[in-house]
Amino acid sequence: GLILNIELLIKKYRFESLKQVFDFYYLSTSAFFSEFEGNFTGILYNKKNNDFQVFNNKTAQKKLFYFDNKDFSIFCSDLKVITSYLRSSNINFSLNIDAAYLLLNSGFMHENLTLITEIKQLRAGEYAKSENDKLRIQSYFHLRDIETTKDNKKEIIENLDFLFRKAVELEFSIDSKYAYNHLTTISGGLDSRMTALVAYKSGFKNQHLINFSQAGYADQVIADQISTAYNMPLKKVDLQPDSLTTIDENILVNDGQTVYTACSHVFSILSNIDIANTGIVHTGILGDAKIGRAS
Fold first, then answer.
1. What are the distances in angstroms from CA 29 to CA 130, 143, 157?
2. pTM, whole model, 2 decimals?
3. What is the number of helices (H) and of strands (E) in the chain?
């Protein structure tokens, strides 16, 4: 994945290299990754102590699955890789009926469940740690631990604005560092519009906008207006019913953790546009739930 603030941490603690960052955090705290910002999962194996830590970020945008029994543990970002290994090793696994009903009812998987009873997923802000040959799942970040602010309304809005701009600038700066194009999704909604326009006002004006919508629908019309007003090129992709036919391809990408119709249009679009020399795809995903996060 992508850790956006590594250089800031190197500067903050006056390190000279990325290795010093990991050495410092690993020796000083069990959840050394708690200060990392970005879209990532990771594993750190200590050969000397023969132990490991596997971690997810604070929003679990990337999936990390695991199987654990008395003999071994498996961690992988691909559910099929784990099931293929279990099948080749003659280890039985079964359909999680309750998880399947949850998926059908809400469209998404809940908690640490997967469609396989014996396989779980690391949730947002969680990490797995080996201790005395046993696997422990712990939390380093949870929304319940956030303290209630005593700031007034004006201070809250100002701080929210500051944090939003900081997050947007952090992710767009990564594109600039590697001379990548800024690819930003745009619709008629507030979330993606905020990402695009705050980035524009922060100096990232050479964005390539992409819109996927039913032709003539408000999402497309408003995106056109924004593109014209701010002189940013817009690639329009009309939603087509054919996007619903690539069932197996969609499930291979999302591991059956999401009803495929919810993301089939995005899969179709990203499979049919030129993303050469593109870094992060900047979206409004998680919009009002988690502001300013890279997708």
1. 15, 20, 33
2. 0.85
3. 9, 13
